[in-house]
């Protein structure tokens, strides 16, 4: 891991403050806190404004100041288990947080005897914050916690002009066809991206408009992975862009995890042969049906490889934890398998026993797999995940896309392709090359190193 060093040339001339505001979801909080750590190491004081829902633990970050605001999320939190429309929650937060955020930010700016605030950095999904920042005459930068390609796809997809294409089913002739506006994606992919295309269209329009109005965009990616898309982004978004990722390579994410990790699995991994374990995790939000859950279980049982399966409580709709497993599954797996509620994922992926990562392709997980050189089996669930998965499988060719969803025969074939076939060896070679490019980008003079230096200089000049 390339840890941040306090290079005097990167430190700001004064102890100016930066105020950061993440959206309250694990996949968004982690990179924001990682960015905060990076900037703190380069001379800035850090204040985190945060929603009370999924609040970060201040004791894990004693060098930051935390300011909670009322978010009203408790009124709709019970819908998280059943409502698959992510934009419903994001649009709600953009309305419910506006006044509490403005009051909190204005109070911070008015505090006597404090160092001046250099800028505000908010998650790009908090699009309302641009108007608040303009009103208070404070530069706002947007952190986009996805890859570049995701934003280009969002900009191109016809959420408003062709909403019907987001409702296609397997029976429709175009279901497997490419989407003309963004040919990397198939219609069956965009069905997952937006369950409510009109709502998604409204959200995306607001987010992208305010990204263009911002003082700059920070991306958790690195130039060598998305060089062509970076050229397009600089044309589509006429504000400075900074690609200084992967953030987690600067600092480990364990301290910002919202779920308790089961570390006993590391000693179990120590007993497994090199590159023999199938690691399965579908992230902190995604949900699957009971039948899909059982197909995953049968696929893992039938393949014969050791496996580590993360089943977050609430993963299966209508189930608390493991009640939906096939009869005698746990007894049958014995020492060959482990099921846990959450894992120290970066350490699991870095472990020599881990042979492949069956993932939902959240952007953080995808980046972590790249950084450890672990081939992927791609099972995206919603929003940006199908886009990440298509890039992984079809552009970078570092994973196998599980095209037919959770079906045991397809699962077994995908695992064999990655773990046993020549195709898997070629995937491993490609992702190992990307792993090396990550290291080079973070080293002195590398693209991410230089982008971080440019960001620190830019914030210091605001």
Helix coverage percent of residues? 40-55%
What's the arrangement of strands in the largest beta sheet? 3-2-1-4-5-8-9
Q: How many whole angstroms does the radius of gyration measure?
A: 22 Å
Strand content is 5-15%
- Mean pLDDT score, rounded? 94
Which stretches of 5+ consecutive residues score pLDDT under 50?
Answer: 5-13
- Main beta sheet, described? 7 strands, parallel
CATH fold label of the largest domain: Rossmann fold
Which class best fits the helix and strand makeup? alpha/beta
* Count of DSSP-assigned helices: 17
> Can you say what the CATH homologous superfamily of the largest domain is?
Glycogen Phosphorylase B
Number of β-strand runs = 15
GO molecular function: quercetin 3-O-glucosyltransferase activity; quercetin 7-O-glucosyltransferase activity
Protein name: Glycosyltransferase
InterPro entries: UDP_glucos_trans
Family: Belongs to the UDP-glycosyltransferase family.
Protein architecture, described:
This protein is of the alpha/beta class. The protein folds into two domains: 230 residues, Rossmann fold; 159 residues, Glycogen Phosphorylase B (Rossmann fold), CATH 3.40.50.2000. The protein contains 17 helices and 15 strands. It has a seven-stranded parallel beta sheet with strand order 3-2-1-4-5-8-9, sandwiched between helices. Strands 12-11-10-13-14-15 form a six-stranded parallel beta sheet, with helices on both faces. It is globular, with a radius of gyration of 22 Å. The chain starts with 16 loop residues before the first strand and ends with a helix.
């Amino acid at each position: 891991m390339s840890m941040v060093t306090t290079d005097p040339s990167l430190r700001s001339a004064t102890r100016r403050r930066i105020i950061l505001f993440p959206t309250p979801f694990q996949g968004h909080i982690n990179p924001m806190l990682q960015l905060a750590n990076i900037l703190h190491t380069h001379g800035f004081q850090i204040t985190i404004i945060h929603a009370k829902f999924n609040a970060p633990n201040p004791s894990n970050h004693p060098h930051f100041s935390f300011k909670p605001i009322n978010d009203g999320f408790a009124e709709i939190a019970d819908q998280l288990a059943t409502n698959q429309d992510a934009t419903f929650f994001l649009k709600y937060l953009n309305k419910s947080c506006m006044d509490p955020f403005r009051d909190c930010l204005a109070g911070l700016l008015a505090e006597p005897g404090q160092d001046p605030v250099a800028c505000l950095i908010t998650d790009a999904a908090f699009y309302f914050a641009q108007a608040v920042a303009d009103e208070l005459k404070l530069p706002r930068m947007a952190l986009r916690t996805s890859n570049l390609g995701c934003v280009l796809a969002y900009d191109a997809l016809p959420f408003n002009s062709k909403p019907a294409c987001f409702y296609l089913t397997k029976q429709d002739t175009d279901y497997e066809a490419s989407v003309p506006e963004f040919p990397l994606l198939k219609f069956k992919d965009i069905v997952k991206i937006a369950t409510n295309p009109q709502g998604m269209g409204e959200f995306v329009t607001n987010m992208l408009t305010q990204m263009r109005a911002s003082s700059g965009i920070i991306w958790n990616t690195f130039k060598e992975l998305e060089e062509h898309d970076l050229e397009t982004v600089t044309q589509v978004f006429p504000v400075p862009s900074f690609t200084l990722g992967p953030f987690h390579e600067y600092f480990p994410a364990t301290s910002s995890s919202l779920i308790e990790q089961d570390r006993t699995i590391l000693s179990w991994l120590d007993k497994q042969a090199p590159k023999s374990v199938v690691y399965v995790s579908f992230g902190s939000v995604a949900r699957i049906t009971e039948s899909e859950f059982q197909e995953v279980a049968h696929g893992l049982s039938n393949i014969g490889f050791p496996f580590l399966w993360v089943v977050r409580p609430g993963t299966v709709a209508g189930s608390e934890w493991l009640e939906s497993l096939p009869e005698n599954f746990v007894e049958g797996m014995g020492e060959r398998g482990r099921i846990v509620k959450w894992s120290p994922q970066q350490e699991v992926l870095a472990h020599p026993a881990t042979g492949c990562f069956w993932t939902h392709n959240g952007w953080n997980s995808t980046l972590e797999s790249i950084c450890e050189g672990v081939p992927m089996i791609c099972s995206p669930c919603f929003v940006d995940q199908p886009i990440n998965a298509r890039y992984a499988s079809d552009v970078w060719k570092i994973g196998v896309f599980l095209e037919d969803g959770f079906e045991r025969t397809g699962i077994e074939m995908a695992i064999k392709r990655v773990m046993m076939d020549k195709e898997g060896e070629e995937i491993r070679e490609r992702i190992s090359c990307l792993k090396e490019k990550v290291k080079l980008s973070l080293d002195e003079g590398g693209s991410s190193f230089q982008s971080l230096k440019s960001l620190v200089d830019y914030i210091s000049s605001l």
